[in-house]
């Protein structure tokens, strides 16, 4: 009787906090990764803030394509800040404890920012499709009001669709295990510690990825198929080259983003015997795009590169040379 009562009481207990152990398999020397992660985080912050300042100060960049790029910069800052400071706290100060509300909030933020980034890539693909396929109607279609409406719709979509993820995770009962062999709160990593059934959590996670990210990816590649068809119909080789060059930087970011998602998903399924690989890819997928998205656009877009030079005060030196 006493044994049964003890088991019942222990099953009703809720762990007060989770412990993030860090990257699995390399706990002894994972602190060496803190320097490159810190440098990538600083690069992401500085580069994306520079993009925002440049777009705000340069009247020539007050166009839908650059407005979407500015929104992407805000999303990248939010995504990196959601994850990297806590990882650095774990690696530098051994601050492995995280409360349940903080963990669920991080799950929500990660899913929201990832979905928002995917949605902005879709908006940018539509922008390039209209610009190339309907150049005369472009100013009347892609207005400032249109950009605001589509951005708010993406915020609403991601905010509502991702909300059940942390809500369902919070409804699970965590009665015994509280150590997460990771350096961030991933939905499935947290719910795997639950003492009750998590079928609904796994189902909604899978449905969310297929509906939101999968839907965006399908529409993005459909847009680029239409863009390629429009470009092939152009009579001038110069016009064809110009049209493709305006899409190149965006296409590079899209391929990198969705390829990384596919790689992370595959490694999570296939890397159960080597958990370090999916965990490391998960972290890199959260910091690499924010760090390198601005660099790709700066290298491939002359207007933005000139804007950077003016903001940084390098335009006089460049003109003298």
UniProtKB/TrEMBL annotation:
Membrane topology: Multi-pass membrane protein
Primary residence: membrane
An MF annotation (GO) of this entry: olfactory receptor activity
Residue stretches spanning the membrane: 32-55, 67-93, 105-126, 207-228, 249-270
Gene Ontology BP, a term: cellular response to lipid
UniProtKB keywords: G-protein coupled receptor, Membrane, Olfaction, Receptor, Sensory transduction, Transducer, Transmembrane, Transmembrane helix
Subcellular location: Membrane
Recorded GO CC terms: plasma membrane
CDD domains: 7tmA_OR56-like
Domain of life (superkingdom): Eukaryota
Annotated InterPro entries: GPCR_Rhodpsn (IPR000276), GPCR_Rhodpsn_7TM (IPR017452), Olfact_rcpt (IPR000725), OR51/52/56-like (IPR050402)
Residues of the G-protein coupled receptors family 1 profile domain: 47-297
Function of the protein: Putative odorant or sperm cell receptor.
Protein name as annotated: Olfactory receptor 56B34-like
Species of provenance: Vulpes vulpes
């Amino acid at each position: 009787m006493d044994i049964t009562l003890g088991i019942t009481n222990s099953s009703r207990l809720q762990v007060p906090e989770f412990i993030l152990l860090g990257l699995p398999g390399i706990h002894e020397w994972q602190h060496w990764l803190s320097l490159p992660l810190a440098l990538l985080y600083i690069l992401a912050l500085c580069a994306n803030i520079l993009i925002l300042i440049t777009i705000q100060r340069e009247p020539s960049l007050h166009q839908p394509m650059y407005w979407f790029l500015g929104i992407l910069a805000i999303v990248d800052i939010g995504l990196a800040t959601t994850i990297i400071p806590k990882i650095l706290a774990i690696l530098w100060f051994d601050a492995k404890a995280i409360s349940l509300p903080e963990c669920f909030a991080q799950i929500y933020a990660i899913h929201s920012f990832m979905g928002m980034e995917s949605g902005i890539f879709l908006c940018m693909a539509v922008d390039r499709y209209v610009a190339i396929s309907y150049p005369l109607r472009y100013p009347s279609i892609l207005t400032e009001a249109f950009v605001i409406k589509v951005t708010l719709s993406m915020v609403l979509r991601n905010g509502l669709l991702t909300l059940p993820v942390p809500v369902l995770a919070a409804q699970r009962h965590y009665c015994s295990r509280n150590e997460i062999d990771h350096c961030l709160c991933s939905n499935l990593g947290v719910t795997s510690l639950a003492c009750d059934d998590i079928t609904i959590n796994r189902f909604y996670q899978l449905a969310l990825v297929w509906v939101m990210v999968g839907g965006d990816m399908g529409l993005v590649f459909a847009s680029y198929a239409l863009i390629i068809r429009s470009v092939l119909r152009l009579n001038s080789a110069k016009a064809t080259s110009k049209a493709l060059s305006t899409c190149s930087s965006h296409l590079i970011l899209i391929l990198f983003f969705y390829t990384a998602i596919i790689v992370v998903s595959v490694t999570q399924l296939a890397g159960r015997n080597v958990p370090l690989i999916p965990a490391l890819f998960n972290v890199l997928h959260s910091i690499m795009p924010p760090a390198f998205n601005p660099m790709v656009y700066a290298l491939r877009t002359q207007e933005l590169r000139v804007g950077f030079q003016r903001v940084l005060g390098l335009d006089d030196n460049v003109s003298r040379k």
